[in-house]
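User: Please predict the structure of the protein below. I'd like the answer in structure-token form so I can feed it into my own downstream comparison script.

Assistant: Understood. Taking the following sequence of 686 residues as input:
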Amino acid sequence: MNRTTRKIFCLVWLWSFAFWYLPGPVSQASAADRLVTGSLSAVYYLDEAGNRHVFMNEKVYYSWYADFSQVRRISDAALAGYPLAGVVTYRPGVKLVKIQSDPKVYAVAAGGELRWVKTEALARELYGADWNALIDDVEPGFFASFLRGPDIEATGDYDRAAVLAAAPDIQANIQARADKRAAASAVTFNLNLSANRTAISPYIYGTNIWPSNVENDVYSFYRLGGNRYSAYNWEINASNAGTDWNNSSDRWLSYDDNQALETLPGEHMKEGIARARARGAATLITVPMLDYVVADANGSVSGSAISDPSRWVANNTNKTGALLMSPDLTDGVVYQEEFVNFMQQTYPDAQTGNYPIFYSLDNEPALWPDTHPLAHPGKTDYAELLAKTTQTAGMIKELAPAATVFGPALYGYYSYLTLQDAPDANGRDFIDFYLQGLQQYENTQRTRLVDVLDLHWYPEAHDANYARVTDTSPSPSSSLIEARVQAPRSLWDPTYQENSWIANVVGGPIALLPKLRAQINANYPGTKLAMSEYNYGGGGHISGGLAQADVLGIFGREGLYAATLWPLSENTVYQDGAFRMFHNFDGQGARVGDYSVPANTTDIQTTSVYAFGNSSGSGALQVIAINKTDQALSVEMKGVSGFLRARAYRLQQGAGSPRYTETVSVSGSSVTVVLPAYSVTTYQFE
């Protein structure tokens, strides 16, 4: 049982214990028939509209009720008949709350509104001498369930008695919350069409697996990478699944290729490149760096040592003899230099054509002993990976000086820090070490080896029930939806702290992309940044579409060089729809521009906005607006002078592709629009 599982178990056990063993009179007669539970331990409040609201935890429950005597147990089927509408927050005026990693103390006002009490003296005046005994520590993930109110700077700013009277019961508090959200629903988007614009790389709109039902030109970058490619033998087009599937050596990678050609050298890569180019995309191909690759396609090699020449062959970077287009299949060695030469000779336009070919240095090296223990049983260490990087990238640059090289394709945050507890880490940050080593090489050899720092990012953010945002359920809970649509903020927002072990390690907001840019600038300036694997989950739900659209907008605005989505399930309809909001939003090939126009929103919790112009100087403008809430929002879009109207194309639940919805008129330099709940809208200004 891992640490997270133990924590969930303990919380559920304690909540169940409280439910069954704490007697006493109920303080509110109105609780009758409103409090229910199912077969699990969670307790819900049923509102007047027939919706249920879950209590965050027992502390919240006790702020409203003295005990559990009026909680009714009903069947799970009956419980499911009440739509889950949200959470019950603390009773206003009863408790003070703070986030675990932030010293600020907040009063709770009507509607679950948090107001920062700016001094201890104020807290004492408002809540009494024992004010600090009233503080509850709240996990970061719960904070998304509260509204934000004005700070309390003087005693006159907050009347505790009036706050208590404003929400005498949960129903009144729910209504107060709805009223406050409605009052705050007017949002402003500010665009600055005259400010400097930032070029957007076409390679951020990428995928690792091409969906069969997606039209050409939606994805503009295609990666041939993943665990399968670490032991890929280009001479016979065979690969090994590692521990993903019985350590099977086979031609699974060639499943979609021409079967009659699958044994020809490099044929899998050729077919992948052909597939990408036919659909208007560049390609990233993987160069294996393990010491061994597969020798055949004869199935499982579990139990076969890497020294067994019948199942493995040596994988050498360089070759001393002639580089052959038809490699020797009997020499017991595969040469990556011969492979790269084969690709360069086959594609003379590899670096100069409209759809270039890039090179990736293997895949997730920190996990080699986990994914490919037969080929690499020991832990990967810092020195080993840097040596393999300089040798392999050096070979590529010698054959193709203009080639763009990606590396090291790290699997996730812990590998960024320690390369998965590498034995020679010695407290050093691995990314810093890696970049410094490459800079030192360039200083002495006058050659840049790695052009793009390539990382993988699968968010660890979760909701209050420990459901991770990468979950693929087509029917996520409201708390998971909220966690998912907020999670992209951890890529950039210095004020947002998600609920995850990464945020705990960092000790606050993650702000990943600014952190990585700072590391690059400090250690190896000029290096580009890529995420060749990522996913925010929910491919079959609109929340996944919202998160995906938000991430693509962030990638463009923040200057990412390349990114390729790794699908986590077969149902990616809303993630595909999010890509269409950028490429082919009108169904006729219309795309957002290749320059990012400065744009911001007055409410980053409920909305996101991204604006686009064209390098051609055509004066075109597209705006992508995201409503991350469960209610419609009125938005005033300012700074759009010079345009008469905007055509709106929208992605919503129930429609996996954008649809034209309306044309809105511009008045002066602004336009007011209504964004439906949980929606992505692309506006084409004319």
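That's the full token string. The domain at 205-225+274-293+349-587 is CATH 3.20.20.80 (TIM Barrel).
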